[in-house]
Amino acid sequence: MKYFPSIQHIKYEGKDSNNMFAFRHYNPDEIVNGKPMKENLRFAVAYWHTLVNDGSDPFGGSVNNRDWIHNDPMETAKNRVYANFELLEKLGIEYFCFHDLDIAPTGESLLEFHKNIDEITDLIQLEMKRTGIKVLWNTANMFTQKHYINGAGTSPNADVFAIAAAQVKKGLDICKKLNAKNYVFWGGREGYETLLNTDMELELNNLARLYKMAISYAKEIGHEVQFLIEPKPKEPSKHQYDFDATTTLAFLYKYGLEKDFKLNLEANHATLAGHTFEHELRVSRLNGVLGSIDANQGDLLLGWDTDEFPTDLMSSILAMYEIVENGGLGTGGINFDSKVRRSSFEMEDLFLAHIAGMDTLARAYKIAVKLKEDGFFDNIIKERYESYNTGIGKDIVSGNCDLKSLSEYALKLKNNDIKNPSSHIEYVKSKLNDYL
Ligand code: XUL
Ligand code: CO
Fold first, then answer.
1. Which residue, 222, 266, 216, is CA-closest to 245?
2. Model confidence over 77-106: pLDDT tens digits?
3. Residues with C-beta less than 6 Å from any ligand 1 atom
């Protein structure tokens, strides 16, 4: 069965096209920065938002028209597989990402869940073979089911820790079966409601134990995989342990895991943590852990994760600039952890939303490359820090100074000798706008 019979393969038609079902900026084969755009961007569809989400919110039920829904949950799961591959093929997207719970019904027990996963991943494997489409990453959903009420790896209940471990084991088996190069941990309930009843030390030690078990199991089954942690400060937990990139890095260093993990950064999670997306990407890049990204945007007037398709060009440019500076994302890519708005409930909106996101990021990527080629930020930064290239500045950065020698130098200075040039920040922002 075809789920999108009226939609053909989406083509690049250029910026003047009025065809809603065409790319105006994303040309998959265009060579930019030495590579085709599809390789620079490595777009991926998020199974949970695109195939599973029904448009419900805390105030109203399902609204999305989705022809793949069937009375039998296993039939729905199979239909979704076909819909997924049809959508990706028509959009020309080569990757997708999923949680175990997205692809198969949980049934009455973990055993039944695993059987369902086996059946569905057999089907996925066939479709992957037919189309050449790949899995960017998979993950275990350890937050939806009732037993995860107090977390998974950080649950106070040891049985729950064991169930989480079993889900991660199965997740890595699927990862190997479908040859995914990345495996993600997003711990939505790995956090706490109140410190009054929380053994933070045990919970964090246990989380590290779970991660270490995952590393050794991947080795045991001989699957080379990049582990990724996805930081988020809150929601559903009041406080989530992987709050942001910096907090997650401190955790990784404390437990000696910094070589085994990179980060999967999400735009809306950054803003919930009070950061810009580019801040999270910069921190990760400078620490060598920029692994992959979940592309979306939030609404800064709202305090929750709205997971909107990215359409804000300026913020996308600043994010793409970090990827350019990072020399790409390695085995990672750009996953649309984005959902259509509740009022965009038609099947075809899934196409329009992905096209909007892909066009925005393609445009942003090309501008980011131009900014790099022009030395736009490089020149500003070079000039701003030039006092470290000569004299006392050079001595400081080459490690030739101590407090005594610097004090001797400083005591000879008069206040008027200290020259701080203006940053002309308004001019810089206005010049940056010229790139839009
Ligand atoms: C939730 C979120 C997750 C992760 C994967 O905010 O971003 O969907 O991307 O578990
Ligand atoms: Co995400």
1. 266
2. 999 999 999 999 999 999 999 999 999 999
3. 48, 99, 139, 184, 186, 188, 230, 232, 266, 294, 305, 337
